[in-house]
User: Fold these one by one.
Assistant:
Number 1:
Amino acid sequence: MMKRRRSLLILSGNSPKSMQDAPVFEPDVVLFDLEERVLPQEKDSARHLVREALSFLDYSKVEVMVRINPLDTEEGQKDMESIPRVKPGALVIPKANPEIIRQVDSILAAIESEEGFLKGGIELIPVLETALGIETMNTLIRISPRVTGVWLNAEGLMAEFGAKRTKEGDELLYVRGRVGIACRAAGIHAIDTCFTDSNDNEGLEKDALTAKRLGFTGKLALDGRQIDTLNTIF
C-alpha cells in the first residue's frame, strides 16, 4: 500500500522554529529545503540544522523528506555525504534526470551499507522542473525502486520557458496530464506543484481539484493553513 502523501509542507532548512512547529499542522510530509530557500552563505548552517532536527526532534507522526542541492554542485555533494546518515524518509532530487538518479542510488547504497541501514530504505522523489526531466520521465521513474514519487515543480519549468504561471493553470494541463498518467502506470506518487497564494483558499481548492482529476495524489503546501484543504481533497 502506498504511503499517504496528500500534503507536503515545505520549509526552509534554516528555520529552527518552523522545524519545531511543522508537525502541529498535521501534514503527511514535512519537506526541509536546502536548495532554493537557503542563501548560499547559509548552506552549511542549514545542513547542520537539518541533521540536528532529524536526529533529535520527534517526527514520528509525519514523514520527513529533504530537498538537497543539485548533485553537480559542491553543496549537493556535501548534502549527499551528510543528510542520508541521519536517515530521512526520502531525498528530493532537483533537476532530476536518469543519470543523476543512478548516481544518487549508488551513493545511498554505499552509505546504507556503511551505516547498517536497511538497503533501499531511503526513498527518492525526483523533481520534474525542466523540459528534459519531463521528456525522460518514463525512464527516470523506473531506474530505481527507491523512486516512489515525483514532484512537478511548475515554477522551475515555467522559468525555463521564460513564462509566468497563472492562477488558472491552463499552461500546466498538458504537463500535469503526462505526469499523472506516468505515475499512475508506475504505481508511484504524483506530487503537484504548490499554489503560491496562501491567502486564497478558494483558488487552492480549485487548483488541487484540477490536479486530482489529472491523476495527482498530493500537493506541496507553502503554508500550514493549506494543509487541511489538501488532506481533505486528496
Number 2:
Amino acid sequence: MTAIEIGVECAGWVGAILVLIAFFLISTNRVNANMPVFHWLNIFGAVGLIIHTLYNTAYPSAFVNVIWAGVAVYSLSNILKKR
C-alpha cells in the first residue's frame, strides 16, 4: 500500500468516525442543531469521506457527501451570522 493509499484510507476512516460522533451526539441530546460543533463534525467528516469515495471512484457516495458538507456549511454560516 502506498503512502497516498494509506492517507486516503485514514481520511475515510476519520471521516466516518466524525460523522458517527456527530450522529451519536445529536441522537443522545448532547448537542443540538444550533451548536457549531455538530456542523464542524459533519463538515470534516464529509470531507474525509469525499476524499475516500472520489479516490475509489464511488461517485454516488461522493455526491451524497458533497451535499452533506454543503448543508453543514450552510447551517454553520447561518448560526455564525446570528452571533
Number 3:
Amino acid sequence: MAFLVVCISSLLIISISSYVFQLLSDRRSRFPPGPRPLPFIGNLLGVVGELPHRSLARLAGRHGSLMTVRLGTLLTIVASSPSAAREILQTHNGSLTGRSPPDAWLALGHAANSVFVLPPCRRWRALRRIGTEHLLSARQLDGNNRLRPLLREAVLDLLRRVSGMAEAGPTVEVGRASFAVMMDLQWRAMFSVGLDDAAEGALHDAAHEAVAVSLKPNVSDFFPALAAADLQGVRRRFGRRVAVVYRMIDEQIERRMRGRREAGGGRSSGEKDLLDVMLDMSSEHGKDEDGAISLLQDIFLATVDTIASTIEWAMAELLQHPDTMSKLQEEIRKVLGSKGHVECSDINRLPYLQAVVRETLRLHPVTVEIQGYTVPKGCTVLVNLWAVHRDAKAWPEPEKFKPERFLPRLEETGFLGTTEFNFIPFSAGRRVCLGLPLATRMVHAMLGSLIHRFELTLPQEVKENGVDISESLGLTMIMAKPLQAIAKSV
C-alpha cells in the first residue's frame, strides 16, 4: 500500500512539474489565438466532451482557422481551413517532420517500426518504398499479373457475401461485408494465401478493436508524464489485439521460411508477394523482422478499415438521397450494360460514380486528424480534415451531400490534393496516405458493383426515423451504428 502511495505521489509531482515548466515555456513563445485554458487540464473539457473533430471545428469558428488549444500538458496548434492546411502540408511540410504517435502505439514497440509515425529518415523511406513499389503503387495494381485478378476476385467476393447475407436475413451490413473482403484481399496480396473462417473471425475482431482503441481519448496522450502508468489501460488493450495480428503474421513468415528452406532458398514459381520482398531485403541487409511485421500490419489495418468505412458512408448517403442513387444506377447500367460488375478499368467512364466517392470523402473523411507533427518547440500540429472539407468559403452548402459539385472539376480535385487544399481526403505532401492507389480503385469498383447488382433500400423503421449517421473515431472515422440495408438482386 505504501509503495502504491509513493508511486502515485511521484507521478503527480512529475506531472505537475511538467505542467509548470510548460507554462513558463509558453510565456516566452508566440502562438496563434485560442480558448483560455483551465489550470492543469487546459481545454480538455471543451474538446473531449464530444467527437474531437467536431469540437475543434466549433472552437475554430470562434478563435480562427489556425488556433492553439491545450490538451492537458500537450500544446496543440490546429489548422481548420484550406489556407491553414496549405501552410502545414505544403509550405512548412519539410520542417514539420517528426510525427508523435499515440501512446497506445508504444505497445509491443510498434511505434518504433511504424511507417505512419516514424520521422522521414532512411528507415521510413525504405518502408514506404517497399509498400508502394511492391503492393500499393498504381503501376503494381494495374500491371501486376498476380494482383489484378485479386482485385477482380475481391469485388466478386463482396457481391457473393452481400447476396448470402440477403438470403440469410432481412438486412445486410455492407460495412462488415466490405471489411471482410478487404481483409482477405490484403492477406492474399501480402502472403498469397486466403483466410479460412476461423482466421477471418480472429483477424476481424483483433483488427476492429485495435482500430477502435488506437486513437480514443487517452490520459497518457494528454499527460505524457503519466503515460508509463497507462491509467486507462489503452496501451495494454491495443497491445493485446495487435499481438493477435502479429502472431498470425509470424505464422506466415515461419511458413514461408520453412518453404524456402525446403526449396533450397527463394520462391520456386510465380510473382513475388510483399512477404517475399521483405524476406529478400532481410537476407540482403540483415534481419529486420520487427520492421517487416510492423509494415505488414500497418498496411493491413489502414487499408482494410479505410476502404470499408468509405463504402459504408457512401451507401448511407445514397440511401438517404434516392435521386442521387437513381442517377448513379442509371450511369452504371448505361456504361456496363450486361457486364456483371465494375472493374478498375471502368472507373474513368463513370464520372458520376467518381463524384459520389469524392463527395463522400469530403463529408466523411475517414482520417480526421491525420497530421500529428511534433514541431521543434514541442507543439503538436493537427490538420482537421473534417473542418477543412466543410469550409463554407470553399464549399457552398457544405453540409449537403451534392456529388454534382465535383462533376465540372473531377480532374482538378484529384485525391492527391488540390492546389487550393480544400479537398485532401488522403492528406498531401510527404505524408500522403500510403494506400491511396488501392483505396481509389477498390472503393469505386466495390461501391459501383453493389449499386449495379442490387436494389438497396432502407428498412421501413429506418425510413421513418432516418439513418443514424453518428460517428465513432478510432484509427479511422466509422459509423457508430453499422448501416443496415435491404438488398435485392436485379
